Amino acid sequence: MIIKTYIAGPFDANNYLVIDRDSREAVLIDCSDFKQEIIDEIRNNNINLKYILITHGHFDHVLGINRMKKELNAEVIAPAEDLILIENINDHARFFGQEIIDIPTHDKTYDDGIDLRIGKHEIEVIRTPGHTEGGVSLLIGRNLFSGDTLFKDSFGRTDLYGGNSTKLINSIVYELFKLPDNTIVYPGHGNSTTIEYEKLHNDIMHYVKRG
């Protein structure tokens, strides 16, 4: 498996192009802006981009959807509970001084029962609400794409619409921290990490111990 990281958008969100070496099938995880480098990588290497998978509905992770979909002809799949954020994107964007003209669209939600895979690799959708109500993390082999749920040494904010600190703690501790320690975590912003490292060092453990 090949994982390529592209940083794009107003808040330097990570976009991950995940490619199966054998079949050349791929997914793009989050789509924070139009990125010609991603298009060139796909076209120049005969890659079949099957899906654009959205981890959550905040505007800084979905801004590139329409233009990238038009160029790459891939299905866009988003969390059903976060469609309210995507469809009303300016309610969130204006909070950060942004105005979005091209409202992102989607084809399906994770609730549609899609069998997600690239080549022989299954893509497991893990429900991780807390940063948003519909937030998901995506597990491909031992690679976890955690969106804005889990970061290196930190975790997602819960003070925006749909945020819930109790749900976020439960998502991390009872869903993500149950994964094998050698699981590599690719967050929505910042550097990659591992489940083992975060169980020892993540700030969220301070809140768990207090509870």
Task: Give a structural overview.
The chain is of the alpha/beta class and 211 residues long. It has a single domain, classed as Ribonuclease Z/Hydroxyacylglutathione hydrolase-like (Metallo-beta-lactamase, Chain A), CATH 3.60.15. It is 24% helix and 28% strand. The protein contains seven helices and 14 strands. The strands form three sheets. The protein has a six-stranded mixed beta sheet, with helices on one face. It has a six-stranded mixed beta sheet with strand order 7-8-9-10-13-14. The chain is globular, with a radius of gyration of 16 Å. The mean pLDDT is 94.
Number of discrete helical segments: 7
Structural class, by secondary structure, is: alpha/beta
CATH architecture descriptor name = 4-Layer Sandwich
Major sheet attributes = 6 strands, mixed
| N- and C-termini, Cα separation | 39 Å
Query: In order across it, which strands form the biggest sheet?
Result: 1-2-3-4-5-6
Features:
211 residues, alpha/beta, Metallo-beta-lactamase, Chain A, globular, six-stranded mixed sheet, 28% strand
Concise structural overview:
The protein is an alpha/beta fold. It has one domain (2-210): Ribonuclease Z/Hydroxyacylglutathione hydrolase-like (Metallo-beta-lactamase, Chain A, 4-Layer Sandwich), CATH 3.60.15.10.
